[in-house]
Amino acid sequence: MRNSVGKMSATGMKQAPRFAWWGVHSRFALWVAVAVFVCDHALKTWVLFGLGLPQRGQVPLLPFLDFVMVWNRGISYGLLQQHGDLGRWLLTALGLGASVLLWLWIAHTRSRQVAFAVALIVGGALANVLDRVLYGAVADFVRLFWGEWSWYVFNLADAAIVAGVLLLLYDSVAAGRDDETRGS
Length: 184
Prior knowledge:
Layout lengths: L6 E2 L5 E2 L10 H25 L2 H4 L1 E5 L2 E8 L12 H24 L3 H24 L2 E9 L2 E2 L5 H28 L1
Antiparallel strand pairs: 1-2, 3-4, 4-5, 5-6
Helix pairs in contact: 1-4, 3-4, 4-5
């Protein structure tokens, strides 16, 4: 039985209505997303203004790690490079829209691991959106390499996004394995 206040439980007691934007793991996910966002922004601020990486260009750190300044005007791996304001704001809107949809996923999941993984993606996406708003491009600066081989230049937000995607893939494979085990 449903009424304007909420749902009726099996015992006939009224339950508070479930808000579509907030779920079981939303508070936890919010903390994770905010932590990624704040840490990424703090690190970028230090790299840009404390270390002065844009003026220095490159700072060797370890035999396999440098800080090197790259302004990414596209998305992951430099795809969809945008050099005008229209492209910048379209990518900003895309990042915000994706974050809203991902937040809805968080609000409706019952899995803490999925909420954690998606929160990493949301925090990273919003951190890169902030870069587009403040600087017109995303500040990437971590370069991993070995000899002549070099990985793409990235930032903490990108690493959080990749970690979130990998956790979702792991969860999907593990869930598939569980389904196969139950079916046999």
